[in-house]
Amino acid sequence: MFWRMAGLSTASPVETILDKENFTLQELLDEDEIIQECKALNGRLINFLREKAQVEQLLRYIVVEPPEDADSNRTFKFPFISCELFTCEVDIILKTLVEDEELMNLLFSFLDSNHSQSTPLAGYFSKVVICLLLRKTLPFLQYVKGHQEIVKRLVDLIGITSIMEVLIRLIGADEHMYSNYKESMQWIEDTDILEMIVDKFSSSDSAEVHANAAETLCAITRFAPPGLASKITSPSITGRLIHHALEDSRPKSVLVNSLSVCISLLDPKRLTLGVYPTYRQVSQGSTIAANPETVEGMLESLGGLLKLLDVSSSELTLLTTYGKLQPPLGKHRLKIVEFISVLLTVGSEAAIKELIRLGAVQRILNLFFEYPYNNFLHHHVENIILSCLESKNVPLVEHLLRECNLLGKILEAEKNCTLTSDSNMPTVSAEGRAPPRIGNIGHLTRISNKLVQLGNSNGEIQAYLQENNEWIDWHTNVLSKRNAAENVYQWACGRPTALHDRNRDSDDDDCQDRDYDVAALANNLSQAFRYGIYSNDDMDQVHGSLERDDEDVYFDDESAEVVISSLRLGDDQESSSLFTNSNWFAFEDDRVSNECSAGAMASALPNAEKVAVVNSEGEDDDDVGGGEDDDLDDTATSSQVSEGKIVDQPSDLSKDSKEAGPSGNDKPPAWVEWRETPGSDEAPAFVPNGEVQMKLDPDGTSSSSVNTSETALETSPESSNENLTSNPLEPSARTDETISGTESAPEITKDVEDPAKETKN
């Protein structure tokens, strides 16, 4: 196990079995901890498993189908455990297997034609073979080179996905294999493995075989050795692929997967497999470098592919929620459109001339409007249109704008933006209810905006747009308003905002994002956590944060920037519903302000006691009051300060607070106001870090003064500097005595703990 401490660990069940005089492999395989013991390199267990007889039995569990009357251990558990023991990658066990030809023959007997290959055992076989290929590469490749019939048997079983993965690794179509063992895999280039894989499109009707064969060929186009890569791009291979795709008797899966290979040949980085394609955004104006011979080989059969785009001869019907498709577009037509889209990005002059001659762009553009709810089709057609407009080929642009009548089709679709009920169209609305809005308006908007954008730099496109008065009217009254409504920079809080409700007369340029001072907001947010503005259960933790550096605070500046930048800040500083620089830390009421003020004054009590004791050392008790009276004196003084009138200063406070408060015409300060009082223009009287400092008069009497640094509250010199004294012999002075000669203050009944640091004078 993982620990070997005497008295704490029990004996492993595997060790218990190994301690027996006569035990079998089945007993070990039936034990659940055998895999952990093997990974922990249990010496006694590995010495037993490395024997040829045990390795042979493990292989038989993997490659031999269990009898029909076998128990569950023989059917499921033993094959799984045997595979896991090999994939533990214990070198001595793998060495026993790969260096013994009889054991290797037993392993690859799984590929025999008279052998049944179940899906679970095929997975176990694949894992063991790939493990040998990765860990014992040289001896394994030497064995396969001496038994090249293995490659043919792998191709014959390519319909099994696990076998296909072995084939891809073996022929070097893995990005990590070929660079390390180039010489050992050179012999594979001399075989006819590519022809064997391509011929699977004609010799089999299984869709799984076609899909796996296409995936293998696509992997070869991306990662194969140079010899195989140059061979697969030859006209002979591409011609054979197109020939199999256009055979009338072949299933549609042959056409779909053959075109996937052709697309991968044109653009190896494009992911083309799967039921629905995965799109890779290509930068505007970019072209793909493809082998000219490969392109020419594909153009020979382009006319036959375009004939398959004709939907009038099909009698299939598909009912949908919005109506009826007669016929459905189908994956094979969608793959043809994708193939033409990639062919245009190559930039081949021969391909462009052939597409114009055959009218491919016009036919595809018609499909765009005939199937208004197929977004996969719309994506490819949009790419085709953009490739034509951005190309430097003038005949292609003229063909798209004039012969294909792109503007006319866009305006017609915008005018009749509901689904047609014409029974002769491929897409028909359902009877008995209102026809829905067509689903390609978004793509039409992007195509129209692209036309306007390119018209600013292309005189021919601009001249063509200006010739159409209907386009000019639609662009002014419809497209511009639609772009303004869909401009996300004018949105706030994730939803469109009615600009007229915000009483602004500025132009559209004013609607752009303002450059908020994110750094200042982040600093304010971190300072708020440092000074305990937000409530914490443990005030000591807040107190301790004051003594830390900026990078050690609970909420650092970097985290604050992430939080603030993730929010959509409004641009109206006067709007109370949006967070801006001026009111980011505004609260609903001033209740927290009063609590912090009371807490700051109440916290002066322990400070006063400590200062009084320190200052009275070495003096006569008669000077200070002596003994318990001294404590009472300090306590009374502190009570008067904490119970005194702090918030409602008559005149000086109002004047100072107005001077300290932010002005409506001034630039928002770097340190924002923490709280605002609803319905009042004056800043609230707030002492966040108030401290009571005790001083000694010349006669030895203790006094106190209020230090209100880092706040907008500043008391008058007469009130802030006057000594506060108390008489312990008059108990009633605690409630009747006033501070600095002002009127009596109401009693503050709620005390809040002060997070500020204690000071000693």
From TrEMBL:
Record's compositionally biased regions (Basic and acidic residues): 748-761
One Pfam family, short name: SAPS
Domain of life: Eukaryota
SUPFAM superfamilies assigned: ARM repeat (SSF48371)
Biased composition (Acidic residues): 617-634
Disordered: region residues: 614-761
Residue stretches in coiled coil: none
Ranges annotated as biased composition (Polar residues): 700-729
Family affiliation: Belongs to the SAPS family.
Annotated protein name in UniProt: SIT4 phosphatase-associated family protein
Organism, scientific name: Hibiscus sabdariffa
